[in-house]
Amino acid sequence: MYYLYIKPSTYFRRVALRVLYYLQIFRGCLRIYRSEMEVQRSLEQEKTSGKDDVDVIRTGTVWTAVAHIISAVIGAGVLSLAWCMAQLGWIAGPIAMLCFAFVTFISSFLICDCYRSPDPITGTRNPSYIDAVRVNLGKKWTWVCGLLQYVSFCGTGIAYVITSATSMREIQISNCYHKGGEKAHCQTGMTIFMLIFGIVQIATSQIPDFHNMAWLSVVAALMSFCYATIGLGLGFSNVIVPIGVGSVENKSIKGSIVGIPTRSSAQKIWLVFQALGDIAFAYPYSIILLEIQDTLKSPPPENRTMKKASITAIVITTFFYLCCSCFGYAAFGNNTPGNLLTGFNEPFWLVDFANACIVLHLVGGYQVVYSQPVFAFVEKWATQKYPENRFVNKFYAIKLPVLPALQLNLFRLCFRTLYVMSTTAIAMAFPYFNQVLGILGALNFWPLTIYFPVEMYIVQKQIGAWSRKWLLLKGFSMICLIVSLLGLIGSIEGIISAKLA
């Protein structure tokens, strides 16, 4: 560095010092800006790396999400769709199913954007449906949503008891007809089979929690595919490939445009309403959508991936539902049973296998999907309410031969046993498959599939009241409310009529 031999004046010395001072300030600001940019870049990498705050690695893709949706949607509800088609006829039946598919498509799109709040791409994750309701709608609506969810869980458990007992009875009937012929007396009640299912559930309900039941969930999903595919194949074979080669009746497509005739117009209206409730039970998957979306990796953003998965899954499910319902109605016509598989007796081994798959699926589904959340909620509440109570918190290790040690808790044993007994007792009092499914579908359809997604979307997108978009969403919600009420009324009337008869 070179120095001037001429001594600078005081003025220039002050100017130079002031310039150096500002240069230092600028340099410090530049360092702060760079550090802030590095922090921001690291935050963005965390958001898109697939890791959550608890270091959960998300690796899900479009196809894994499609698999989860189809496994969850295709279940006991598919068995009632042929009966629904028989009530609505060849025109109204397919149209109704396509309408429910469209409504499910819109609902899923609305919920996908609620996975992150307040921004659907960079906001905070809402890993469950009830978390999204709490963040967007507040504590009061969270309680309402939770109540509806647990009522849905209990109701579906009752429906599973009825369906499983029906399938077990059909195995016995199918074998009876195979041995004794068509004139054999093979009718029997369902009470004993409901008791058997209840005893099995009391035993399996003592499995501690979800983390010990992954194998049961896999078995349940595989079984649902098996019996739904067999039902479709049996209906298809009865229409396209007749059982009796020389029989003209088996070669014809049965059914009519208006569906099954009834004694009065009022009875027809009730059955149509009930069919709408059954279709509503078979389609929506809104309660588990955000849980599935929480498994997806990013980038791309989770909401975009989930929307693609929803479109694909709904198209596949709708095609499968239409095939099952149409071939079932074409095979049986006015004699279409409420549960599709109860209409087939031959080949008896395939019918038995399909019904056995239903029982295995519902044993797992009853526990994994619909009972364990109730157990976890009640037991967590009891533990927090009575932290010093030995009956609630004390565990006893019981060593069983061959099996690992069982941690037995008296409160868990009593509560879970009473819960299974209550669902079994209600199913024994109201053993009506289609009517119970209709009530459950109507109760869940509007509030959980339509109302909450619409309201959360309006809040998140800050859509102004009485704007065009607001009116469209509110109108969509009101139309679905009317359909849900019609399905509920028709199903309640069906239960009353069946009980009185």
From TrEMBL:
Q: Does the keyword Magnesium apply?
A: no
- Which residue range or ranges hold the Amino acid transporter transmembrane domain? 58-496
Query: What is one GO cellular-component annotation here?
Result: membrane
Q: Which GO terms describe its biological process?
A: amino acid transmembrane transport
Q: What is its main location?
A: membrane
Q: Which UniProt keywords apply?
A: Amino-acid transport, Membrane, Transmembrane, Transmembrane helix, Transport
Q: Where, per UniProt, does this protein localize?
A: Membrane
Residues that span the membrane, as ranges: 62-83, 90-111, 141-163, 184-203, 215-248, 310-332, 439-459, 471-492
- Keyword Zinc assigned: no
Record GO terms (molecular function): amino acid transmembrane transporter activity
Output this protein's name: Amino acid permease 7
Q: Give the species.
A: Capsicum annuum (Capsicum pepper)
